[in-house]
Amino acid sequence: MEAQPNITNDLSISGSGSADGGRYRNARINGNGRIDGDLECRSYKSAGHSHVYGSLAAREVIIRGSGSVSGNVRSELVSVSGNGEFRGDVAGRQFKVNGSAGIGGSLTADTAVIRGSVQINGDCEAEKFEAYGGFEVGGLLNAGIIDIRLFGPCRAREIGGESIQVKKNGFLNSLASLFGSKLTSLEAGIIEGDVIYLEHTSASVVRGRDVKIGPGCEIGRVEYTNTLYVDNHSTVAERQQL
Question: Which one of 24, 63, 70, 128 has the largest count of C-beta atoms within 10 Å of its C-beta?
Answer without folding.
Answer: 63
